[in-house]
Design goal:
The chain has helices at about 1-15, 245-260, and strands spanning about 25-35, 40-45, 45-50, 60, 65-75, 85-90, 95-105, 110-115, 125-135, 140-145, 145-155, 160-165, 165-175, 185-190, 195-200, 210-215, 260. The chain has about 260 residues and is mainly beta.
């Protein structure tokens, strides 16, 4: 549990409003993919993420590097007179356009994954789909209009493909099969947008669902850092993305190596 709360502390740090900072060092989106865990998170004495729950995808955030004091309480706990479940100092490095996901591994244990988001230019008339398997579930195939878009995707792998901008009938099925369909939805892929879909939760535990984010403005080579938007856990509505931008990959590799608890 302490390990999981530490992971959530790192995620909570990334959710501090960007207006509080004087410089922009990168863009980060945070995804809560651990079922049955709700916490209140305080950063530098401020309530930053009250009631942080499974399926939440934050808005994209621009943050500077630095050290921050984190306190985590069970949801609804008054911090006055109560000890936090976890109190720590977290060091945040500069980063690229990345997504931080607290989720279950294939065996159901909580873990943390960092993904670089592909913000390279998309050809006219196309959009981009990124599918990330971060659920306690077997290897799956992801179908678009009944054709395999990504085959043999295991936790915590991803698939990335540029496709014609359109709305697709998307299904998640066991690898090599068409039944049972464990999730199905219409997925709108707008032109110039990277639509990022996360399979989260636990298939055996009954919490398996989908969360999503989108990064728009990729019609041509970006002049800044596109931010995009967060999404909600799958409710059947259209969801709101294996080549990385080289500079982004280098930046997140350096960031992931130093994204840690400050033991001092």
């Amino acid at each position: 549990m302490r390990k999981l709360l530490t992971l959530l502390a790192i995620m909570a740090l990334l959710a501090v409003p960007s207006a509080a900072f004087a410089q922009d060092d990168g863009t980060v989106t945070v995804v809560h993919g651990v079922p049955d865990l709700e916490v209140d998170v305080w950063v530098n004495g401020d309530a930053t993420l009250p009631g942080f729950t499974f399926g939440t995808v934050t808005d994209p955030l621009t943050l500077p590097a630095g050290d921050y004091d984190i306190e985590i309480y069970p949801a609804g706990t008054d911090p006055d007179g109560n000890e936090p479940a976890l109190a720590d100092t977290v060091t945040l490095p500069a980063g690229a356009n990345a997504s931080i996901v607290a989720h279950l591994d294939a065996g159901g244990a909580p873990t943390l994954s960092v993904f670089v988001n592909d913000i390279s230019a998309i050809a006219a008339g196309n959009g981009r789909v990124t599918a990330r398997h971060v659920a306690a579930a077997p290897t799956v195939d992801i179908l678009a209009n009944d054709a395999v878009l990504f085959g043999g995707v295991s936790n915590p792998a991803e698939g990335v493909a540029d496709v014609p901008a359109a709305t697709y009938d998307v299904k998640i099925v066991p690898t090599g099969a068409t039944e049972p369909v464990v999730f199905q939805t219409d997925l709108a892929v707008p032109e110039g947008t990277n639509v990022i879909v996360y399979a989260i939760g636990s298939l055996d535990g009954g919490s398996f669902t989908v969360a999503a984010q989108a990064i728009s403005g990729l019609h041509s080579a970006p002049t800044g850092v596109p931010t995009g938007s967060g999404g909600l856990a799958g409710d059947g509505a259209p969801l709101r993305s294996m080549m990385f931008a080289a500079l982004g990959l280098l930046a997140i590799a350096a960031g992931a190596a130093t994204l840690r608890r400050n033991e001092g």
